[in-house]
Amino acid sequence: DGLDLAEGESHMHREMHEQPISAERMLRGRLDARFGTSHLGGLNLDARDLRAVKRVKILGCGSAYYVGQMGAQLIEELARVPADAEAASEFRYRNPIIEPDTLYVAVSQSGETIDTLLAVQEIQRKGGRVLGLVNVVGSAIARAVDGGVYLHAGPEVAVASTKALTSMFLGFALLALQLGRVRDLSIADGQRIVAGLEALPGQLKEALDLEPQLADVARRLAEAPSLFFVGRVRGYPVAREGAQKLKEISYRHAEAYQTSELKHGPLALISPAVPTVALVPDDELAERNVGALHEIAARGGPLVVVTHAGVDLGDLETSEAVDLTRIDVPRNEAELDPVLMTVPLQLLAYHASLHLGLDVDKPRNLAKSVTVE
Ligand code: G6P
Asked: Secretion signal: which residues (predicted)?
């Protein structure tokens, strides 16, 4: 890591490519392969406290909110504890119900986002307990929370978050493992996830090696006035994050949708002028996802499919009439795949911005951290 850039390099480019290293640092010393669990020193919660947790509520803004949705999904899958994420900027304005057996988690790269900090304070005022997933050591949120996990991503300068987001995801995976292993998660499943986490840094590198292909796709998509990003269940927050990145740094309109909801409205907008980036992991929903791609193709909508090598796209790939680009990302455990699928979307947004000649690191109207309401 470092702040010195090579000639012509942007912070975002540098930070994307630091992900294999920053992910490894995030995991270092925290995985327990023998017992299929994790060690997180700073939680200030023992096994009994963890067992008493009935619900998890995650709060963050922007990318931290979307990765919070990925984290909630992970926690529900591995620990079978009801979990959800909410935009911290909305939370305190709806007089939220604060429950003593809910574990609140505030997620923030900077640790200075005022909306997230005020949500933390509101929870604490009403007797709730908050953990932090924060990158900047000693920041306001890091100081305010009752315990937490540092992200160890190193300094992140580009407005569009990349390596911090990846470390946030890993933080949720570590937390989900711990919550799971004091409940129903078997040692074998715990070990399966630990092995998956150990493989992730190398696979992040492989995903980054897709850069030339994504640069090509970005050049083709950059001129589209509007795009859809679609995914289901695990893939939906990834789609939201991908659309957000594109909006932030390429100023293209992008809308994220649940693939399953396309037929309930947005299909009306699909045309050869409106490309769709679709997340189709090799999971139990793959066939249904491919079905939805047919609906898009039938209306002439160009497709970029972010998927795994095992997924059969059938005649979508062979038909001359269909404009489809396939991006195969490395495959991990299904629960951990979302983080690998964020990487091509980072590369897509980055190269779209570059192609359009925009300031990748400092997009107009946005700040790296928003410290006033
Ligand atoms: C700003 C940035 C976003 C970021 C969000 C949360 O809006 O433009 O890129 O995701 O703040 O920042 P944080 O530091 O709390 O993660």
From this structure: none
CB 162 near ligand 1, within 6 Å: no
Please, are residues 261 and 236 in contact by the beta-carbon 8 Å criterion?
Answer: no
DSSP state for residue 279 in the 8-state scheme: E
Give the separation between CA 78 and CA 189, rounded to whole angstroms.
9
> Global pTM?
0.96
Indicate if ligand 1 lies below 6 Å from the C-beta of 52.
no
pLDDT for the residue numbered 344: 98
Q: Strand pairing partners for 255?
A: 228
- C-alpha torsion 309→74→171→186, nearest 10: -100
The preferred substitution site among 114, 366, 369 for testing ligand 1, maximizing ligand atoms within 8 Å of CB, is 369
Q: Are strands 37-38 and 31-32 parallel, antiparallel or unpaired?
A: antiparallel
* Cα distance between residue 193 and residue 27, in whole Å: 12
Q: Residue type at 154?
A: G
Report whether residue 113 contacts ligand 1, using a CB cutoff of 6 Å. yes
Per-residue pLDDT of 112-126, as tens digits, reads: 999 999 999 999 999
Structure tokens at 304: 């970029």
Which amino acid residue places its CA nearest to atom 3 of ligand 1?
A: 62
217 lines ligand 1 (CB under 6 A): no
**Does ipTM surpass 0.90 in this model?**
yes
Q: What is the DSSP letter of 1?
A: -
How far is 70 from 15, CA to CA, in rounded Å? 21
